[in-house]
Design goal:
8 helices, single chain, five-stranded mixed β-sheet, Heat Shock Protein 90, Beta-Lactamase, 3 domains, disordered C terminus, Helix Hairpins, six-stranded mixed β-sheet
């Protein structure tokens, strides 16, 4: 059953039970009242009927009674009674006089208990009778009993009419409540049905669907708002997951390609070395040197991949106070050692200390400077600057080369990505990706831009206060 059907069924059952209980209570109360009114009428008629019966048998004149004599009582004197039947019985229980009508109640023979009221069937005719017993008012009729009865036809008809009214009224009320409830629930549950259809669309793969809940002040609207918020997070999570999976597949493909290149070279040189024993023109020393170079290249690539994997882990790293000015000065010395023809300058007002991992930060600065050396012509100047901006430390490495293309600005920090030929070296394209990962590891950012006046400018911004490490980017 649907929720609407269950609610309507439950409402119908509850209303039916309530109406039945109300009808039963009303019927019982009305029945008691009608029978009480009938009993009151019998008791009010007792003195008159008792006197007539006593007079009929001559007890007031010392007579012994004539049981074969029937008399009638004027029923108009008692408007609450429809038909009256009365008997006068002697102390032995024999009927000595009666006020009879066409129909008579079914009464047991013998003496009866005084002061009782009961209902019995009909001896002749149909219907039921209400009977009450009393002692005659005359002192001459001591020990005698008076039985006064009247039909309950009026009461029965009234009760039947009440029962019919209750049944018809109850069915009408039930029909109105069920019909009204169906309309109200149909309107009220329509947003939930829309949510169900939207959920089916979402389950089919369309995560862009959103539910319509109407007024946010009611429960359905609040549910719709909560579901839309959850769907936004799910869609964002799925999009991030898809991007991560794409990056992972791309990373594995690029890593496989980069590792295959030196392995292929090593395999080729090893084959030449094996054939060198039979061919004198093969220089085995050169072959061994090339094997060593390719092995070293592969070792650097594997170490970079392992470093990126460690940076991707969400973990707390050991931190200490690191002076970025010192790291920048060391990087300047390394750049001059690599290319003495270059002019490498450092602009720093003094120590700029940040909390972090000294080895990782040193590698980030070294990678930026090495990147500038590798991808600019020989003799191109390189400028380093270390400063503070508010509560952040800023380290900038600028070269005076050809700068970055629009495509390079968008992808320069992606793993295994290489720029155009003017900035392409022999590296695997992991240096700047490592820089960006180290910056995020320390709660900072790494950015790239074209400097005013020409050249590329790379900036690392780190918080000076202690910051919690962020989640590393997945491969």
């Amino acid at each position: 059953m649907t929720l609407r059907a269950r609610l309507i069924t439950a409402l119908a059952v509850l209303v039916t039970v309530g109406l039945a209980a109300f009808g039963y209570a009303t019927y019982a109360r009305y029945s008691n009242a009608e029978y009480q009114r009938l009993d009151d009428g019998l008791r009010s008629a007792l003195p008159v009927v008792s006197r007539q019966l006593v007079e009929a048998v001559g007890l007031d004149r010392g007579g012994r009674g004539r049981p074969d004599r029937d008399d009638a009582v004027n029923i108009n004197s008692f408007p609450t009674l429809q038909t009256i039947y009365a008997e006068l019985r002697d102390p032995a229980g024999a009927v000595v006089a009666r006020l009879a009508v066409d129909d008579t109640p079914k009464l047991d023979d013998g003496p009866v208990k005084i002061g009782t009221t009961f209902t019995t069937g009909a001896a002749t005719g149909s219907g039921r009778w209400r009977v009450t017993t009393a002692e005659p008012a005359s002192r001459l009729a001591a020990g005698y009993q008076v039985l006064l009865a009247t039909t309950t036809n009026k009461v029965t008809e009234s009760l039947q009419e009440l029962l019919l009214i209750e049944i018809i009224g109850g069915l009408a009320i039930l029909a109105v409540l069920v019909g009204g409830s169906w309309l109200i629930l149909r309107r009220g549950l329509r947003p939930l049905e829309d949510m169900g259809r939207t959920a089916s669309s979402i389950n089919a793969g369309d995560l862009s669907q959103r539910v319509q809940g109407g007024d946010a002040k009611n429960e359905v609207g609040q549910l719709a708002t909560a579901l839309n918020g959850m769907l936004d997070e799910i869609e964002t999570a799925f999009r991030a997951r898809q991007e991560t999976e794409h990056r992972l597949r791309q990373f594995l493909a690029d890593a496989s390609h980069e590792l295959r290149t030196p392995l292929t070279s090593i395999q080729g040189f090893a084959e030449l070395f094996r054939l060198g024993r039979e061919h004198e023109h093969v220089d085995q020393a050169v072959i061994m040197r090339r094997i060593e170079e390719e092995s070293a290249r592969m070792k650097v690539l594997v170490e970079d991949l392992l470093l990126l994997a460690r940076l991707d882990e969400t973990r707390t790293v050991e931190r200490s106070d690191v002076d970025l000015t010192v790291l920048a000065a060391d990087a300047c010395s390394d750049a001059v050692a690599l290319d003495p023809s270059r002019t490498v300058s450092l602009d720093a007002v003094g120590p700029v200390v940040v909390p972090g991992n000294a080895d990782h930060l040193r590698q980030a600065v070294t990678n930026l400077v090495s990147n500038a050396v590798k991808h600019t012509p020989t003799g191109t100047a390189i400028d380093l600057r270390v400063a503070t901006s508010g509560n952040r430390a800023v380290l900038t490495v600028r070269d005076h080369g050809p700068g970055l293309t629009e495509e390079a600005l968008q992808h320069v920090f992606e793993r295994f990505w290489r720029a155009d030929q003017s900035r392409t070296g022999t590296s695997a394209g992991l240096g700047l990706a490592i820089v960006e990962s180290i910056a995020r590891e320390h709660g900072g950012t790494a950015t790239a831009a074209n400097a005013w006046g020409g050249g590329a400018e790379f900036t690392i911004s780190l918080p000076i206060e202690t910051a919690e490490p962020t989640t590393g980017a997945s491969a």
